[in-house]
Amino acid sequence: MAKPPIDERMGAAIRRGRLERGLKLTELAAAASISVPMLSRFENGQSTASLPLLERIATALGTDLSTLFREIEQNSGSAQLIKASDQMEVVRSGTKHGHTYRLLSYNKGPRKIFEPFLIDMDKESESYPRFQHPGTEFIYMLSGRMEYRFGDRTFLVEPGDAFTFSGNVLHGPEKLLDDRIQFITIIVYAE
């Protein structure tokens, strides 16, 4: 889908900025020393403002031109909502009795950028998996406590703890200290 023309995107950014600051069209026009009809045409994408006029409008909004231009580019992009009922349970190495991995998001592009999982484990697990992969991994402990192996060291990870480490070092749960644990892990792959 093609982007709208730049004058429409700039007009929308000016309007958003004005409304976010609680300004009336007349107030912004007066502060930028332009007529109300001209400002209205800019906001509606019916006319293109010159750079000096855009600079006056940006100043009246309490911002600068570079921020205004960045804003019109940031409104593109993608978003993904995966409802709880649609999250996939996935099989990873180490997925056995007592292990559940739920993939919380997935990238439809040509390569994976990141993988977020919700992981549930219990003490009935026969063994704990070890992993080694490219990129960086982040763990946020939701409930329960575990000792987590990273290379030749172990770390005590408790609810509310955040743990970040290099994925290329052999790692994985060493010992569960509670009957059940739950944590979120996000693997960010290097470019």
TrEMBL record:
<protein>
    <submittedName>
        <fullName>XRE family transcriptional regulator</fullName>
    </submittedName>
</protein>
<dbReference type="InterPro" id="IPR011051">
    <property type="entry name" value="RmlC_Cupin_sf"/>
</dbReference>
<dbReference type="Pfam" id="PF01381">
    <property type="entry name" value="HTH_3"/>
</dbReference>
<keyword id="KW-0238">DNA-binding</keyword>
<feature type="domain" description="HTH cro/C1-type">
    <location>
        <begin position="14"/>
        <end position="68"/>
    </location>
</feature>
<dbReference type="InterPro" id="IPR001387">
    <property type="entry name" value="Cro/C1-type_HTH"/>
</dbReference>
<dbReference type="InterPro" id="IPR010982">
    <property type="entry name" value="Lambda_DNA-bd_dom_sf"/>
</dbReference>
<dbReference type="InterPro" id="IPR050807">
    <property type="entry name" value="TransReg_Diox_bact_type"/>
</dbReference>
<dbReference type="InterPro" id="IPR013096">
    <property type="entry name" value="Cupin_2"/>
</dbReference>
<dbReference type="GO" id="GO:0003700">
    <property type="term" value="F:DNA-binding transcription factor activity"/>
</dbReference>
<dbReference type="GO" id="GO:0003677">
    <property type="term" value="F:DNA binding"/>
</dbReference>
<dbReference type="InterPro" id="IPR014710">
    <property type="entry name" value="RmlC-like_jellyroll"/>
</dbReference>
<dbReference type="Pfam" id="PF07883">
    <property type="entry name" value="Cupin_2"/>
</dbReference>
<dbReference type="GO" id="GO:0005829">
    <property type="term" value="C:cytosol"/>
</dbReference>
